[in-house]
Amino acid sequence: MSAAALVDEMLAGSRRALARLITYADDGGPELADIMNRVHSRTGNAHVIGITGPPGAGKSTLIWALASEYARRGRRVGVIAVDPSSPLTGGAVLGDRIRMPMGQGPSGIFFRSMASRGQLGGMSRSVRSVVHLLDAFGKDVIIIETVGAGQSDVAVRTIAHTTAVVAVPGLGDDIQMLKAGILEIADVYVVNKADREGADKTAAELEAMLKVNFATAEALGQAPPEDAWTPPIVRTIATKGAGVGELADAFDEHRRHLRETGRWDAVVRRQAEAELQEALLLRLEGALSAGPVAEERARLIDAVGRRDIPAFEAADRLLRRIGVD
Amino acid sequence: MSAAALVDEMLAGSRRALARLITYADDGGPELADIMNRVHSRTGNAHVIGITGPPGAGKSTLIWALASEYARRGRRVGVIAVDPSSPLTGGAVLGDRIRMPMGQGPSGIFFRSMASRGQLGGMSRSVRSVVHLLDAFGKDVIIIETVGAGQSDVAVRTIAHTTAVVAVPGLGDDIQMLKAGILEIADVYVVNKADREGADKTAAELEAMLKVNFATAEALGQAPPEDAWTPPIVRTIATKGAGVGELADAFDEHRRHLRETGRWDAVVRRQAEAELQEALLLRLEGALSAGPVAEERARLIDAVGRRDIPAFEAADRLLRRIGVD
Predict the structure, then answer these.
(1) If contacts are CB pairs under 8 Å, which of residues 55-74 in chain A contact chain B?
(2) Backbone angles phi, psi at A223, to 5 degrees
(3) pTM of this prediction?
(4) Chain-chain contact of B276 with A269 (C-beta, under 8 angstroms)
(5) What residues 102-131 of chain B have any CB closer than 8 A to a CB of chain A?
(6) What confidence tier does A97 reach under pLDDT thresholds 50, 70, 90?
(7) pLDDT value at position B4?
(8) Confidence of residue B77 (pLDDT cuts 50, 70, 90)
(9) Is the Cβ pair A311, B155 closer than 8 Å?
(10) How do residues A142-171 score in pLDDT, each as one tens digit?
């Protein structure tokens, strides 16, 4: 079936067509641009939430509870779990795909696990494409799970409207959390497994970090505006469903804040900038993969490896071959 | 001082010139291509070792001990520590730059801490450029430290000849390690803090994982060739220097293996491929940042954000503007 026909079927409500289109998006093949061009005007409605945190923080359980909570509230929910993948095989790491049911979950929740590609940019493009598909399909809330820290978390900031970091008591000391380098990016902080010893300490550390960030910004003359968002710290016990309603409220509240302050548009522009960049790279890759250019590229890679020609000179030669001066 | 003059001074042995060139490389500014073109023919001699692992594994202490060990053996050593950085400020996370002395360490070891940039590809290009500079400066061994897991670790595989993963007893269970998604990539495994309870269990888990990997590959008809490298598991207590000599031996042995089996050339080609790609992206970015094209790009980003035009159509328009059909 053609991409056009699949898109029509998907827009008419076919989950099978959606699943097939997602596979195209995940592969990043030549059909991707055509599919995205066709769904583009139907996107931009969903609230996209990125949730990250260290392994062991209970993110999967939390997200499942959150998705169910949204479903109970009548929202149509999609979940994308980005698995850390084996850079050698390109596949997801053993044991990671079995955490949550695949495909259709309870309450109409659509779940998809994706391998995070070794290639820079590839993961981000795939996830963004799947978000567009779920959005066009009519999902109101799309939750993306990534394992922190790493560049994938930074990339999620260019896909999601709202980001959350899940911390957990007893997973290393405070400098460890800082080292993870992911805390500063969040709109909402979660202390999961909040019935564990040390939950108060973890929440206090998060609060102290937020205060230090604020004081530092103020001292640098970069104090946030009056109407700036203050990231809440929400305590949850995902396995018991505790705090999950408050978390859904916090995400809704952040969405309302973005809308009311006009910041939603800035977020959308940042997303569009990243999306255009990803499209440029895929198109460039296409131009460089065509017959004779691809052969010259292979020769130039060898020459760079032999130290016969610097990489930038090789790049300039290739770009001239495809028309760039 | 011009880039050409700085390169001449650096090649004549000036550490001050080296430090200034590294700052250019880190910034990724317009001088970078010129500098790389000038040092390119002087590179390709150093053994580049990437060391990754979770926060708290004691990587910094281990690398300092390893660098000192190599220095004692008469090697000239450079160390690059890639810090997870704040995606908002672009700076390294507080507290992370103070771990090791900056600049000139004992025994002539050159140390440099770098912030890992939020932009995809930027970190990789910066680190590779600094590796080339240290290589041209005459370093025999260059050690890159990254915090796992994440795309930065995958990127290091395209820069280093030899990669090591540092595990540590008691940092989560075995599925956690698998989830980190970084174990499969290593040429050498290290169990640091080997005097801690659980060290035997950690080493046994690593060994079991390697056996499973091997068995899986065999079952898939992808059994490694006879002369394949078998990753050793080295136990260290970095704070006491224990096992550090064995670790240096293991890295040297891997380098010898790569050389003797001809695999060194394949590694170098993989590095050249990634380097050419990074150069292409920097050049493309330059072409898209020139006056009128940059203005059209800004307009197109707005249009994509408003859902007026799909990202791929916008990308095609921009590429036509710079000559690509």
Answers:
(1) 55-56
(2) -60, 140
(3) 0.79
(4) no
(5) 116, 118, 120-121, 123-124
(6) very low
(7) 92
(8) very high
(9) no
(10) 999 987 654 556 678 889 999 998 888 876
**Identity of residue B211:** K
Provide, as residue numbers in chain B, all residues whose Cβ is less than 8 Å from the Cβ of A158.
none
Are B134 and B121 in contact by the 8 Å Cβ rule? The answer is no
Cα A278–chain centre separation: 14
- Domain boundaries of chain B, sorted by first residue: 41-262, 289-321
Whether B213 and chain A come into contact, CB under 8 Å, resolves to no
Q: How many Å lie between the alpha carbon of A149 and the closest alpha carbon of chain B?
A: 6
Strand partners, B233: B189
Beta bridge partners of A49: A143, A162
Residue of A84, A181, A287 with shortest CB distance to B149: A84
Q: B181 — alpha (psi -120 to 50), left (phi > 0) or beta?
A: left
Global ipTM: 0.85
Q: Which CATH number fits domain A43-261: 3.40.30.10, 3.20.20.150, 3.40.50.300, 3.40.50.1220?
A: 3.40.50.300
Are B288 and A276 a contacting pair at CB < 8 A?
Answer: no
Residue B258: partners with Cβ closer than 8 Å, 6 or more residues away: B161, B162, B264, B267
Interchain proximity A279–B312, CB inside 8 Å = yes
Residues A173-193: tens digit of each pLDDT: 444 444 444 455 689 999 999
**pLDDT tens digit string along B132-152?**
999 999 999 999 998 765 455
Q: Which CATH number applies to B41-262?
A: 3.40.50.300
